[in-house]
Amino acid sequence: MKSSTDATTVPAFRQRRPAQLAERELQHLEMILANFVERSVTSERLPARYWDMRVAQLDAEYDLVPSQCQRVASLQRKLALLDNALDNASSAADAQEGQQSRRAAA
């Protein structure tokens, strides 16, 4: 006899984790991002895609409550702003370095 599976049944390995377990991860990511903003750490930071992945995992792996979803969205916005600011600062530093090297060569 065939055993039938309900189409709405989610395998155990694909079920989302409870929101309570996401709280610690959210706090950690918020602290890390706050430290980047305070210190303007550029050389020691992991690439933005790593932090994007970590934040996206929260949304994908946990059954977040609405307030946690708002915090995830806030982290994503702050990370995008921080990454843009650091990229702009890096580009400005590169341009200034290029001008100095051209002056030295002249």
Key phrases:
single chain, mainly alpha, 3 helices, 106 residues
Structure description:
The structure is a single chain. With 106 residues, this protein is mostly helical. It has one domain. Helix content is 71%, strand content 4%. The chain is built from 3 helices and 2 strands; from the N terminus they run E-H-H-E-H. It has helices at residues 19-39, 48-61, 66-105, and strands spanning 17-18, 62-63. Helix 1 runs antiparallel to helix 2, helix 1 (19-39) packs parallel to helix 3 (66-105) and helix 2 packs antiparallel against helix 3. The longest helix has 40 residues, at 66-105. It is elongated. The N and C termini lie far apart (87 Å).
Chain-wise SSE layout:
Elements: E1 17-18, H1 19-39, H2 48-61, E2 62-63, H3 66-105
Parallel strand pairs: 1-2
Helix pairs in contact: 1-2, 1-3, 2-3
The outline comes out as elongated
Strand order of the largest sheet: 1-2
Structural class: mainly alpha
Rounded average pLDDT: 77
Low-pLDDT runs of 5+ residues are none
Give a brief rundown of this model.
The protein has 106 residues and is mainly alpha-helical. It is built from three helices and two strands. Helices cover 71% and strands 4% of the residues.
